[in-house]
Recover the amino acids of this structure.
DNA sequence: GTCTATAGACGGATAGAC
DNA sequence: GTCTATCCGTCTATAGAC
């Protein structure tokens, strides 16, 4: 008789997730470039080499943190392209967008504060919506219409930027998150309405 | 008879400004941390050591780029503190704020894209409004009132963030700058009004 | 005011034992 | 899956000649 589920000696199967957690903390505290793999390993109580078993490079850690969130934005864009360009669709785009940023607030805050580093990583990825700016432009196009006048495009941009900023800025810790999300959505709706 | 104005051999007295120009270009292209003094010197046709004659460190180059603009924000805050907290004052705060960001758009864009690096530099400067976040909070306090409810504080924050983003985002190069500035102001006024 | 040369430190990444 | 040890590159900053 065997116990195939659990190998003996409980080999810390969650190390990968612990690396992600610590890396995100340090990237947020001191920035991506100023955080070395040595620091991440030290705070985790392992060695640099251990990190390379779970991630093939420093950039790979970042991608493991950001890919899911970026994919959700891409899905939103794809979905919206198949919808009629009416008021109903616009308000659903904003609702879903705010929810995505709100759910991944820590990661989006990291991306925001390290935009220069993110842009450097995005270089050379010509395919799809690899670049942050492409995603923003796509959403603006869907919210304002592809050939909208400058004023409408600027307002749609401002709507997205202020909504996400509201979701990811560090407020007093005892503010009501649900209220923040509602206010973010209200502001965005006002600007595209 | 002498010619006291121009020393012989025209010793490139503008090198300091040329360094600032090239540094800002490179910081914007690849980010502050990924730009080395070697690269700056190379693009300028001088050596690293020459840079150290004009600036005492890499950070010092950044401060030479940003200090004036930050001081203008500080002056705006000081001025506003002595004004009555009415509609007239709020709208003048926004007008002056937008003008400051608009005038220094390249530098503000650099600070925005390298916020992590900026924050790292701001560590340990306890005095005055050394930190970016302090300036934002001060302006929000002046626009919304010191003990305003959450919604008003969030809206004031969104006003400042979207106005500055509008001024410093890279739009199609043939857009009318004056129109952009007007739209930025309109959005901000709407959110604090 | 600009140069050459170098110090001194730290970074990411890999090899190979256990 | 984690370790030790190390390679090799790059960086900021300085010393000192011209």
């Amino acid at each position: 008789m065997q116990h195939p589920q659990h190998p003996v000696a409980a080999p810390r199967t969650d190390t990968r997730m612990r690396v992600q957690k610590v890396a995100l903390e340090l990237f947020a505290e001191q920035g991506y470039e100023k955080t070395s793999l040595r620091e991440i390993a030290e705070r985790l109580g392992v060695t640099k080499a251990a990190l390379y078993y779970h991630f093939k490079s420093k950039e790979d850690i970042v991608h493991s943190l950001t890919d899911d969130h970026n994919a959700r934005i891409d899905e939103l864009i794809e979905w919206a392209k198949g919808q009629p360009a009416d008021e109903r669709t616009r308000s659903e785009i904003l609702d879903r967008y705010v929810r995505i940023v709100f759910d991944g607030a820590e990661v989006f805050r990291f991306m925001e504060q390290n935009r220069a580093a993110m842009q450097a990583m995005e270089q050379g990825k010509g395919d799809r919506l690899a670049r942050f700016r492409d995603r923003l432009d796509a959403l603006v196009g869907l919210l304002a219409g592809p050939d909208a006048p400058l004023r409408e495009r600027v307002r749609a941009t401002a709507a997205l930027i202020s909504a996400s900023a509201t979701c990811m800025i560090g407020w007093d810790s005892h503010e009501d998150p649900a209220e923040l999300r509602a206010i973010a959505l209200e502001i965005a709706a006002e600007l595209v309405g």
